[in-house]
Amino acid sequence: MEISLPYGRSSLSARFPPECDVTVIRKPQMPVLPSPSEAVQSALANAQGAQPLSEVAQTAATACILVCDVTRPVPNDILLGPIVSCLTGAKIRPQNILILVATGLHRPNEGAELEALIGDRNVLDTTTIANHIAQDDHAHINLGTTTRGTPVLLDRRFVEADLKLVTGLVEPHFMAGYSGGRKVVAPGIAHAETIGVLHSAAILDDPNCAACNIERNPLHLEQLEILSMLRAHTGSGVYAVNTVIDEDRNLAFVNFGEIESSHQAAMDFAARYCTVQLPSKFETIVTSAAGYPLDQTYYQAVKGMVTPLSILEKKGTLVLAAECKEGLGSDAYRKSQRDLIREGTKAFLKRISQKSKADIDEWETQMQANAQEDFEFCLVSDGLSDEDRELTAVRMAESLDEGIRFALSRAKSTNVAVIPEGPYVVPQFA
User: Model confidence over 214-232: pLDDT tens digits?
Assistant: First the structure.
């Protein structure tokens, strides 16, 4: 049997011996929207828990639109044009519309990459576009602290805008339950101090911090409280345009409205497709980091590594294909991975559990270290330097065939699960 896995902008073929019993785990087929542009226009006019965008914009002189950075395949090319047209139709001047890339602590998106991210020439030519910089102290407004003690500092350009609008993609997220909505605000445009506390071991070690779960999820609850503090500070609402896409990245869902209620509706839709119930576990899983753009760094690829683990037997093997064309990730992440290798998983996890704030990108190492306590990993990637291959802290294979042979050599069973979209499908052992 041969199965194609996304890999960068192309694919790799996973081949299995005839004796293997292979289960392919995919989302149920989504009903894609026949006319995405019409669906976007309809969403803006038929708001969830709010007035239509054309009416919301009537009393605004300035607007700030948050967009996700390049790590998320949000269909901005079909969203931003209608949104900007709606705002200018309500007499907001184009020069008073700021599109702010919600980078969190990721690198800024610039040049040709930024043009591709926005995807609309008219939007690029008529509005102001900028990147959020989390370490810029003067660029943030302090809104106080949450009841749990998280300091809330948000980008002042968003806080001070008359109209605050979030765009995003709602998909499984291995910490926050789902991406999009409140997550585009925090960590998206939060200060590094806020992000560090939100990603502390004390929060992320909670078992409710899991993909497709928001019930008693402390990260989700912190994010909702931050939204509440933002509304109290400004006396105005926050709005969102939410999307869901299928495996081929066709638009399946879009809505607009008050950020919490519209995001909840999008999560409800996504949940019907992103979780797959299975009657048994496997000793071997073969998966990918879902190809471009998520698999361009090992830092992001870890999401594909840890999301399927609920159906992997203890001491089982997961083989991950991720191109990692941009390498390991940030220098801070390299440091964190070096710490993991030097200290070992148990000592590393014990040390960070005593901290109230995570170091930059340390949380991704934490998620990997937690998983390595129980499972074996094998990475297939041709984008990493020799140094970065060492810093992954997992076994490397030169090909997918080699990785599969290694996994099967460790397993007693020839039953194999193949998950083409590793981070975006959440298999659950029923």
Answer: 999 999 999 999 999 999 9
